[in-house]
Design goal:
Layout (H helix, E strand, L loop, with lengths): L1 E9 L3 H12 L1 H8 L1 E9 L15 E3 L13 E4 L6 H12 L3 E4 L2 H17 L4 E2 L10 H8 L5 E7 L2 H12 L4 H11 L7 H4 L2 H15 L9 E2 L7 H9 L2 E12 L2 E12 L11 E8 L3 E8 L3 H16 L18 E2 L6 E11 L4 H11 L4 E6 L7 E8 L2 E2 H12 L9 E5 L3
Parallel strand pairs: 1-2, 1-4, 2-3, 4-5, 5-6, 8-10, 10-13, 10-18
Antiparallel strand pairs: 7-9, 7-11, 9-10, 11-12, 14-16, 14-17, 14-18, 15-16
The structure holds L-homoserine (HSE).
């Protein structure tokens, strides 16, 4: 067997601990598969004096992650610190500059600096791997970059954030309000340290920006992802969606055509019979369409110690096997800058929820607002009057444009009978 591969692990949260566990528990199995032993040489975290439930005494303890790559007996650094900049980014750049390969689970860093890091890895002749950054236990980066490499891909979409999928699932299955399910995921520890990353769709957008580059060979362009989260979704929307034959999901969607790249993360209403509509709880799912494969569908756990650490260790094994191809599956210099497609270019149907006073003439005023913006109604539902004299009116439209629906909602919002900002959700035919 060839010489062992020596690893340094930076960051000992759940995922870091999971990586240590897998590399120790599956030592022999992994050595067989990798063709060489993989040994942990050094570990690094902010706080040394914490019981993490694993024995770390056999590893060198290093306080500063940016110095790990300077150690002679470290071949690769595994960065599990997180954060788009700061120590994680410094450690990543130093690792690549020292001609050592980098494995990372850092979605924010790859989404923001993917093209730069890919360049650096290539210039230094080493590997950059980030399977764990997207959809945890689903090997979607390898599936797209290697398994589907023969195809011209047209779109990738999916559920990329497990926490919000759990929230939407339980708002429907248990009839919980947004605030109730938010409290539950806080207690369960599902939320990111900054909950806005989950709730406002930013975490999903990081993953989508990475997938765009892997699928289409474009430079990572997080700044041009259109992002909306789930904070405005209420129980009433979940109920109406069901009544209309839809289910609400927070999807990331990326499409590339003729140099134009559309990247969007927002809640959608989709046919509740679609396979992806049946993906519940904290699971992630991805759909990849290509010219020779038609459609492929992937489902699995997108977060948590085991699935994420499994993806990290798979990347380490890849490097141990000597696979050091380009980070985004084509030479870094060939990654293209795509033209971003604005959300305003969207055409499609919309669900609109209005909370209005239950009084004569309201429906006529609403339809007049829609007519002025040339938005045609497909269905209109109104539930019996609430005790406080207000009702929810729900409309689905025929195909229209993003600008027309915005125009209509601005007009309707000016009516004195409207007591809450109207909400629209895009209906996607997937
Ligand atoms: N906050 C993320 C999620 C963790 O809920 O999917 C995994 O990236």
């Amino acid at each position: 067997m060839s010489e062992s591969l020596k690893v340094a692990v930076a960051g000992l949260g759940n995922v870091g601990v999971g990586v240590v566990k897998i590399l120790e528990e599956h030592k022999e199995l992994i050595a067989e598969r990798a063709g060489r032993e993989i040994v942990i040489k050094a570990v690094c975290a902010r706080n040394h004096n914490v019981d993490r439930g694993v024995d770390l005494s056999g590893y060198i303890w290093v306080a500063d992650a940016t110095t790990l790559a300077d150690m002679d007996d470290v071949d690769i650094v595994v960065e599990l610190i997180g954060g788009e900049d700061g120590i994680a980014f410094e450690a990543a750049k130093n690792t690549l500059n020292k001609k050592k390969s980098l494995v990372t689970a850092n979605k924010a860093m790859v989404a923001h600096h993917g093209a730069e890091l890919a360049d650096l890895a290539q210039d230094n002749g080493v590997a950059l791997r980030y399977e764990a950054a997207v959809a945890g236990g689903i090997p979607i980066i390898k599936a797209i970059g290697e398994g589907l490499a023969a195809n011209k891909l047209s779109q990738v979409y999916g559920i990329m954030n497990g926490t919000t999928n759990y929230m939407l699932t339980h708002m429907e299955s248990r009839g919980l309000s947004y605030d109730e399910i938010l409290e539950e995921v806080e207690e369960l520890g599902y939320l990111e340290a900054d909950p806005a990353l989950d709730l406002d769709g930013i975490d999903a957008a990081h993953k989508l920006a990475i997938l765009s580059s892997v699928a289409f060979g474009t430079k990572t362009d997080f700044d041009n992802v259109y992002i909306e989260g789930i904070r405005k979704i209420q129980g009433v929307d979940i109920e109406y969606a069901k009544e209309l034959g839809y289910r609400i999901k927070l999807l990331g969607m990326t499409k590339f055509e003729d140099g134009n790249l559309s990247q969007r993360v927002h809640p959608v209403m989709i046919d509740r019979n679609l396979p992806i509509a049946g993906v519940m709880d904290g699971f992630n799912a991805l759909v990849v369409d290509g010219d020779y494969i038609d459609r492929t569908f992937y489902q699995g756990r997108g977060a948590g110690e085991g699935p994420t650490a499994s993806a990290v260790v798979a990347d380490i094994i890849d490097i141990a096997r000597g696979h050091s191809g380009p980070a985004f599956f084509k030479p870094a210099a060939k990654l293209v800058s795509a033209n971003p497609v604005s959300i305003n270019a969207r055409k499609g149907a919309y669900y609109v929820r209005l909370h209005v006073k239950d009084e004569a003439g309201v429906i006529a005023d609403i339809t007049a607002g829609l007519k002025s913006a040339s938005v045609s109604v497909e269905t209109m539902l109104q539930k019996g009057s609430e005790q406080d004299g207000t009702v929810y009116v729900v409309i689905t439209t025929h195909e229209t444009t993003e600008t027309a629906i915005k125009d209509a909602l601005n007009r309707i919002n000016e009516l004195s009978s409207v007591i809450e900002n109207p909400l629209s959700i895009r209906i996607e035919n997937l």
